[in-house]
Amino acid sequence: MRHLLSTADLSKDEAVLLLDTAAQMAATQSREIKKLPTLRGRTVVNLFFEDSTRTRISFETAAKRLSADVINFSAKGSSVSKGESLKDTALTLHAMGADAVVVRHWASGAAYQLANAGWLDAAVLNAGDGTHQHPTQALLDAYTIRRHLAARSDRLPDGAVDGVGADLAGLKVAIVGDVLHSRVARANVALLHTLGAQVTLVAPPTLVPVGVGVWPCEVSYDLDATLDGWRPDAVMMLRVQRERMSGGAGAFFPSTLEYTRYYGLDARRLALLDDHAIVLHPGPMNRGLEISAEAADSERAVIVEQVANGVAVRMAALYLLMAGEDSAEGNDL
Ligand code: CP
C-alpha cells in the first residue's frame, strides 16, 4: 500500500492486515510507555480544509505515539484563505519534507488528486473527502464491530483474541440516516462488503443517493421493519449533515420532527435489538435528531470506544504506509 484513499481499494487481506495491526497497536497502548520509536525522524502533515475533532486529534495522537514529527495545517488561518491552490499548498509541503500527508477536504476526489498529481513524494491518507470516502473511519468501525461481535463466530483462528485474524462474514450491519451526504456510509459499505458482512442502508428516499442500486448492499426505507425483522448485529447511525443541504435545515425531509420519528434511534427502537447488538455513530452526534441521548448513552453504544479505537487504527495505517517493506511482515512493535 502506497496511499490509503478509499476502502474500495482494499483487498480483504489488506483490510484484515490493517485491523490486525491495529490490534497490535492497541496492545502497545496499554503499556506504561505508550510511545514507539517506529517513525522517528519522519514527518506527518495533517492538512485539514474542513473542520474535525476526532479524526484530526487521533491522527495527531497516532503519529506522535509512533514518534513522528507532526505539523498541523488548517485552511483557516493559512494562505488558502488568500486563494492559494491545493497544488501550491502541496508543493509547499513537499518542500518542507513531508513523508505523509493526512488530508481532509470538502471536495470529493481531493485525496486522489493529491496522491496522483505528482506534487508530493509522500503517502497520502484520506481523512474524509467531500461525500466520497473516509477510510480510517470505516476501518475503526470495522475494528470495533470485530472486537465486539466477530469473537461470537466460530471462524476465529485458535487462540485469537478480540477477533484478530477474523473477517466479518455472517454479521449484519444496518447503516441508518443521511446516506446521501455520508462519506462514512460509502466507506463502510465497501469495507464491510469486502470483509463479508451484509449491509442494509436505511434512509428516507430523499437521502438515498442516485446509483445506490449498484452498491453491494440492500436499501430499506423502514427502520422499524429492519430492526425488528432483519435483526442487525450492529446499527450504525449517521449524522444528519445539514451543512451539506442547500435547501435549508428543513428541506431534507418534511421536517426534523418527522425525521426523528421515522429514522431516529430511541429507547423504543433500542428495545427491538437482540441482546448482543451494538450501536455505533461516527460523531459528531446530533443528539435528539438521529439519536436520542438515552440511545447514545446506553450500554449498547460503543461510540466512545470507536474514538479510542481510532488512534490504534490510524497508528496501524501510518505504520503500514510509512515503515516500509518490513511493516507488511509484522515486524516487532
Ligand atoms: N467521525 C469524524 O470524522 O469526526 P470528525 O469530523 O470530528 O473528525
Automatic annotation (TrEMBL):
Carbamoyl phosphate binds at residues 54-55, 104, 134, 137, 283-284. Pathway: Pyrimidine metabolism; UMP biosynthesis via de novo pathway; (S)-dihydroorotate from bicarbonate: step 2/3. Transmembrane segments: none annotated. It comes from the Bacteria. Residues 170-321 form the Aspartate/ornithine carbamoyltransferase Asp/Orn-binding domain. Pfam families: OTCace, OTCace_N. Keywords: Pyrimidine biosynthesis, Transferase. Heterododecamer (2C3:3R2) of six catalytic PyrB chains organized as two trimers (C3), and six regulatory PyrI chains organized as three dimers (R2). This is Aspartate carbamoyltransferase. It comes from Isoptericola chiayiensis. The lineage of its organism: Bacteria, Bacillati, Actinomycetota, Actinomycetes, Micrococcales.
